[in-house]
Structures are given as C-alpha cells and as structure tokens.
Design brief:
single chain; alpha+beta; six-stranded antiparallel beta sheet; globular; 16 helices
C-alpha cells in the first residue's frame, strides 16, 4: 500500500474570517495501463472518534469524458455499491453505510480504463457529526442525499487523497498531476472545500452572486443543517410561503396556465406526457426511468429569468429538478449533455448555452411597470428586479419605477419595509 507522498495545498489564511478567499491547488490524476476496466482500491483505518454508527466515503472526481463509475464501500461485514454518473467537470460523490463495528474501510472505484480520472479529497472514516446536527437525528437516507454529499459527512477534503492505495488489488496505473481546483473555507465548520468557478454552485458551496467568490460563506451542509434547519422554525407562516407566492405570481405573469391549456387543446395531450415521451420516460440528468407521476417538468431556461414553461421543457426526477432550481442549462449540464438537450428540447445549441433574460417578457414589464408593481406582491417585484439586474446591470426596476410613478414607488417601498429585505434589494 502507499499514500501519496506529495500533496499540493495552500491553507494559509489572511484572517479568521477569510471565507471568500480562493486557494488554487493542483489535484492528482490516474491513468490505467493495459486493462479494459479500471479498478482503484483504497483503504483507511478508522480515525474519527465517531458519534454515530455510520461509515462514509466521499470526494470529488473529474473524468476526461463523461462516464459512469461504480463505487463500492466495504466496512466490516457491511458493504454498499453505487453507480454514479459523472460529467466532464468536477463531480461530488459520496456513499454511506450503517456499520457500527469495523476498523478498516475499503473503497473500490471502477470505471472505463481509457478515461483519465482527476481526483481531490478522497476520504473515508467513521461519521462524527457536529453536535447540533446530531441533535436533529438525521437518518442514513437524510445524509446520503446527492445534493448534500460528501459535505454532510464532515470529513476533511483538503488534500488529494487521505486514504492509502492498495496497489496489489488495483490495476496498474500512472499517477499524474491533475486539473486545478479552487478551495474555499466554510465559515461554520472551517473546512477547506472545493468550488467550481466554471459551474458556480455545483460543488461544496451554493452560488451567491453578491459574494467575492460568487459562493456563500458556509458549505452546503452547514447551510442545510446548521442554518436553515435552525432558522426555518423561527419563521412565520407568511414568510414560509413567500417563495411559493413568488413562483406562482411569476407563472401567472408569464401566462403559464394559458400556455399549458393551449398545448393540451392543440395536441390532445398534456405537456407533461409529451415531454415524458420525448425524453424516453427517463430523467435527462441521471437516466432514471420515471413513472408519469414521478416526472418533474423543468423550464430548461429558468422561470426566475422570465422564461415560461413551454414545449422546450426538460424531464427530470425530483432530486435533479431540486438541484437545478434556477440554474441555466450551461450551469448544470456538461457540454455533452447540452448538445443532447439541444436535440431533444428543440432549442438551438446557442440558445441552450446562453444566460439571458427573456427579452419579450422583460419589455412587457418595462412597458407598464407601475401596473405590475401594484399587482404583484412586493417580494415578487423584489425577486424579479434582482434577477433582471443580475444579468442586465443597466436596468434597475426601482429606479425606473421611481421616475415613472413616484406614488407607486413609495407605496412599494413602504410595503417592502413591512417585511425587511437585505441590503441591496431595494
């Protein structure tokens, strides 16, 4: 067995609050020689003073082309295999098992031999959760949600490989210098975790356009368990419904009910059924076969940026629709997937790759701004104004409204102050 002798890292901080500084590091890569199937076997002795019965493995992988990789986690008498679809960029992976008694962990990764695999932060250990998360008593299924792993295992991921390579049971390989990756410190758990500057929000931190790094201070696990889960119980019923109100008003404004009815009247079948069939009854992202009732229609181009649901919608499972949220296709899919999505959705490749507002609907807003400001809930106006300014900094709905109708503007601001916004939203 051997451990990587040299690691590239830069974890010196300028201050204790250096949460927006990015640290560029070189990762490691593997190329296998003379075999049709690559097999990498990693081992680790238990180090964590665990406060759960779980064993977890996680890390970050970047294949030279899109592949499916099989990950097998062995912990004593317990094992679990999982096939994970990787795109041609940095991907997050994680597997967890309930294995109360084990001393040695073995992880086997298997993929197509011709594919070069870059990796960072591969680590496995007994699970030791922060106390406030432990009090919530999350189940194994809670912890293994793909949009939370591997961050939710609270393992260190600040070097390329924490485990040892079992050379005897691995295929013959070359160890090479890998692609560069950026690391950022989490303001809660203090770990150095990766961000992907080409696909914002796709790794350990959610996207935040107002931040220097374009990512939030806290990692996605701390955001979920230590912020949202503590904050949400303190919110009022009205506040909890704000998000759904904004979504509903956007859909009404963009005439989605009329669009859906028109499609049904014109074709005899609902849009959901049509899209389901067009995508061969599978989630476009992961390929999972879906029943019609399991299908979630994604707008393809985000509703938040004024794109209504239409014939260009994408068929996704609930998990990946939740992950995509307000992302543009280019922020969520690999280039190979974008080409495929263009062919299926009937949007051109150029349209699929663009991050832009729906200009027709934007002009509709601007042509009668005071009326919209009076009809919408104030939070809807704020949300739409924020998205417009994000892509079109030259357009500020508040400034335009103030010039067009001072009375409506002042009424809007007063209503917003009844439910205060964060700085910069007014």
């Amino acid at each position: 067995m051997r451990r990587l002798a040299k690691q590239s890292r830069d974890d010196a901080y300028n201050s204790q609050r250096d949460y927006q500084t990015l640290h560029q590091v070189k990762t490691q890569a593997l190329e296998f020689i003379g075999s049709e199937k690559s097999s990498l076997v990693l081992t680790n002795a238990i180090k964590n003073p665990a406060n759960t019965n779980c064993i977890a493995f996680g890390g970050f992988l970047y294949p030279s082309e899109g592949i499916s990789i099989e990950v097998k986690l062995d912990a004593g008498d317990t094992s679990k295999s999982k096939v994970i679809k990787l795109t041609n960029t940095w991907n997050r992976i994680g597997v967890i098992v309930d294995a109360p008694e084990t001393e040695i962990i073995t992880v086997t990764l298997m993929w197509t031999a011709s594919v070069r695999l870059n990796f960072w932060g591969l680590n496995a250990d007994a699970l030791k959760l922060p106390d406030e998360i432990l009090l919530l008593k999350p189940s194994v299924s809670d912890l293994q949600q793909s949009h939370l792993v591997p961050e939710t295992f609270y393992l260190p991921h600040d070097t390329a490989l924490v485990m040892e390579i079992d050379e005897e049971h691995s295929n013959h390989f070359h160890l090479l210098e890998g692609e560069e990756i950026s690391l950022k410190k989490c303001s809660y758990c203090g770990r150095l975790l990766p961000v992907n500057m080409q696909r914002l929000g796709s790794l350990s931190f959610h996207k935040h356009n107002a931040k220097l790094s374009n990512h939030q201070n806290e990692c996605r696990s701390c955001k979920k368990w230590r912020i949202n889960n503590n904050f949400n119980p303190l919110r009022t019923t009205d506040q909890l419904h704000e998000s759904s109100v904004i979504t509903r008003e956007r859909k009404i404004f963009l005439r989605e009910p009329e669009i859906l009815q028109g499609i049904k009247e014109r074709t005899g079948a609902g849009l959901k059924s049509q899209v389901w069939e067009r995508f061969k009854r599978k989630c476009f992202y992961c390929g999972k076969v879906l029943k019609l009732e399991e299908v979630q229609l994604d707008h393809t181009r985000p509703l938040a940026y004024l794109w209504p649901i239409d014939e260009h919608a994408t068929c996704l499972c609930a998990e990946h629709n939740n992950q995509k949220k307000e992302k543009f296709p280019v922020e969520f899919y690999s280039d190979e997937q974008l080409v495929e999505l263009s062919n299926i959705s009937r949007l051109s490749y150029e349209q699929i790759r663009k991050k832009e507002l729906n200009e027709v609907e934007l002009q509709r807003i601007l042509s009668n701004l005071p009326s919209f400001a009076q009809q919408w809930e104030p939070r809807t106006f704020a949300a739409i104004a924020r998205k417009i300014t994000e892509l079109r900094p030259d357009i500020n709905l508040y400034t335009l409204l103030e010039k067009e109708n001072l009375d409506v503007y002042q009424e809007l601001i007063e209503r917003l102050r009844e439910r205060p916004l964060s700085v910069g939203q007014e």
